[in-house]
Design a protein that fits this description.
This protein is an alpha/beta fold and 604 residues long. Helix content is 55%, strand content 12%. It is built from 23 helices and 14 strands. A six-stranded mixed beta sheet has the order 10-11-12-7-13-14, sandwiched between helices. Strands 6-5-8-9 form a four-stranded antiparallel beta sheet, covered by helices on one side. The relative contact order is 0.11. The structure holds adenosine-5'-diphosphate (ADP) and magnesium ion (MG). Residues 395-396, 438 line the site of magnesium ion.
Length: 604
Amino acid sequence: MTMAKLSNTARILLALVPVLAALPLVLPTYQITLANNIGIFSLATLGLILLTGVGGMTSFGQAAFVGIGAYTTAYFAVGVDLPPVLAWLGGSPWSGLLVGLALTLAVAALLGALTLRLSGHYLPLGTIAWGLSLSYLFGNLEFLGGHTGLSGMPALSLFGIALDRAEGLFYLIWAVLLVAVLVTLNLLDSREGRAIRALRGGQRMSESMGVNSFRAKMTAFLVAAAFASVAGWLYAYTQRFVSPAPFSLQAGIDFMFMALIGGVGHVWGAVIGATAVTVLKQGLQDWLPHLLGRTGNFESIVFGLLIVALMQWAPGGIAGWLAGRLGSHRRRNAPAVPAAADPLPRRTLPKPGELVLEVQRVTRKFGGLTANNNISFTVKAGEILGVIGPNGAGKSTLFNQLSRVDTPTSGEIRFRGHAINGLTARDMAGAGLSRTFQHVKLLPTMTVLENVAIGAHRRGTKGVVAAALRLDRDEEARLLAEARRQLIRVGLGDLLHVEAGSLALGQQRILEIARALCSDPCLLLLDEPAAGLRHLEKQALATLLETLRDEGMAILLVEHDMDFVMGLVDRVFVMEFGQRIAEGLPETIQTNPAVLEAYLGGVE
Ligand code: ADP
Ligand code: MG
């Protein structure tokens, strides 16, 4: 964990732990029972913060996963109807926990495989469908007690300590919750965490940087389900009775409310939201009948109105509002970069002059429009090829074909001697092609350093478990050091810890170059990198590209600034209306009549 974040988290924990430890000594049991529920709800909601708040996937099915955990726990704890093969597992709370987790993860993996590839509204609708069907299933399975549920659970006893009272369970629940919060913070501050944070609004970019988005979605989904399952285990032992109602779709919606009210963008928002909703509901239930002089489910109506009002003034939830008030700048949460870290291994680069890219008769049609028409050219290692042409000529479309963001209608592209048909954008990043985007694609609320580290994703291997346990620190230091090295190289070394969204547009383009370099490419596609740069910045960029060329990089450069292009590139490829109209040395292109007519003529 970074020093800055450690101290932030440590400060919260230092304040929280003594208060929590003292609560059972001062509060009456019924309030401790309420606090236990809050802790359990917080744990389930924490999963949603990761899934929805960070990963951008809306799920109403969280309660169903809590249910799987709770029912499995009750089933094994009661242990009377166990089939003979499972009999040895009966009676132990650990079987409920572990089998519950295994079952939850298996169901989540299946549901995730079916729904996580769907975009837009399909995922939330899918989660509603499984939320509904799982809760009906609980009510209809005879061995789970049908609608009356399973009762007669023994009290929880761990390592010989009987946790039969609310006070004992309180310590267990809140300890588990705090561990889960730490695990989540660790995960977010890691290689896999950056991939999850890139899911919302950055998938196309991160895929081009070599990130497997589906895997990142699945990771977030499974972690969220695991938290829910453990919450179910705790819930079963606090109630010592399970029935279908608490795991209904309604409960799934309530968890979403807790996340929204607490603040989906903040890990602690889970605890704040669960506390606020539970206390508010309880308060309304207790006080509304007195206030109104009659009974009825008025609390649901008032609760609904309050949520609508809160979302109006504090769309970021309570945690978002607090962060704004306390002026907690994200800059403070920036990961620190250790001074010394072993450099990452590099790929074997092609020798200068070796053919890196061969484009043969590539055509891309969009309906009746031919954006690339029969385009052929080659690029060698240690060469900069300028691709110029008026707006709409098809230059960006060409880049998309080369980086496999898009697929040619016909024609062949060979990269380092191999045809790339059938490869994904992710494969291309792995093979050594990296790119920037004409329309800058970065994650505005992540720091410059974290954005650039996404480029190095394929150069690390540590996954979610290593991140959660902080066994990834060596590798993480090396990834961040590489990101910093590239940022210093492109001249953004002073801006490592500012939010990427706060940079000027020209700097954002330069950030994309650093990000592309982080993947250790041998072919770089730069789509209008100099747009928005000032004169001196352009000179610095030209110097950088010359250095890269001298090191053997093959570079494809789309750019409108003719002085910049002509002074820098080795050859120029000119396009208009999807066609090649000329190709050659900068000097000859500048006097080519067809080019002057089509392109330079249009500018004068
Ligand atoms: P350039 O980068 O040279 O300015 P583009 O490659 O962006 O040009 O666009 C070339 C042509 O292809 C334009 O007419 C554009 O409208 C069209 N085009 C690009 N992408 C798509 C797409 N996804 N669907 C339909 N038309 C597209
Ligand atoms: Mg373009």
